[in-house]
Amino acid sequence: MSEAVAVLSQPRHNNGLQREAEPKEVEENPQSIGLTDQESPLAWKAGKKCPNIAAMLVFRFLAGFFGAPTVTNSGGSLTDIWAQSHRSVPLALFSAASFLGPVIAPTIGGFLSEYTPWQWNFWLVLIIAGAVYLAMFLCLPETYQPKLLRDKQRAQGSKVERKDIKSELYTNLTRPWMMLFQEPILFSLSLYMALIYGILYLDFTAYPFVYGQSRGWSSGIAGLSFLGIAVGMAIATVSSGYINRIHGHYVHKLGGPHPEARLPHLIILSWLIPLGLFWFAWTASPPTHWISGIIAGVPFGLGLVPLFLGITSYLTDCYGKYSASALAANAVLRSLFGAAFPLFSRQMYERLGTAWATSLLGFLALSMTPLPWVFYRFGPNLRALSKYHLQTMQAEQEANEKAPNR
Fold this sequence. Notes:
Elements: H1 3-8, H2 22-28, H3 41-46, H4 53-72, H5 74-81, H6 88-115, H7 119-139, H8 145-155, H9 165-182, H10 184-215, H11 219-223, H12 227-238, H13 240-254, H14 266-269, H15 272-283, H16 290-295, H17 297-319, H18 323-368, H19 371-383, H20 387-402
Helix pairs in contact: 6-12, 6-13, 6-17, 9-10, 9-18, 10-17, 10-18, 10-19, 12-17, 15-17, 15-18, 17-18
């Protein structure tokens, strides 16, 4: 089995626990392939003893397909619960949880693969995901306002307008894609997030390869190389309260809760991502001390969480009632990048070497770094050309005009 096919067996969403062992085990145990993807525990169980790689990839697809709503709907649910002025901290915690999981998991997976049967990588994730799903099923309330309004009308005995399910399903499936390719704001910011997301997932393959090849580290020890990124993410999460204060300051400065108030801190923090990449590029290999390459992950993680938080908040403020579709399009695009980048990571590092392979990623990130400034400076003009933003503003204006008459 080729190495590229083995990498395809890795999960395509936020689960990195078995990354250290899986490609090797897929190659060595093609008759005992387990399915591991945090999104759908039932699909894992169904595919635990797949007979071949083709069957395993089918079940991997099913796991991602049925688990996708947890990725695409989460941002919309958070915006339903918290007001615009209080979203920074919840979104920061959500972003940190989304990224800290796949960053910390390879460390755990590496040691599990060394000291336990490789199947325990799969079983542990299945147990954790099953517990989370049970908690969600029992405790997570409905937050979508149109659904809550229809339920309230039914409870009061009022007539509820029946919707055409076929038409609604068509709209829900096509609107995110239409917005992605018709809205320059959404496309450019989503492309920026997708690039950084792809680099993060490429690192899950590149870091163990770099430290394993250049320093001879075992899979468990090589997994510790992600701790620098994890520390940076943790610092960013703890600092989310300060980001909320910055947002409040710029709301006052700009004369209202304009989406651009979400961006000023990113004009500075976004530069930390290419800084971390270039730092890692030229210090990860001997004779430089191994700690330097790991510390290089700190600015990368420190820049990544605020970037994702700021762009998510900007899109939410910009598109209002269409924000769920905007965030769904954003999530799909970045997931595609996260799926594709690991496929060429090892070949890139073998041919270019650690320094230039990582520098190439740094230059790509650097090319997108001015975007927060561009949208802070020209955002109002761009929003004035956005069909969905104008519809959102019109709906909010009509709602405000009706409010005093209730």
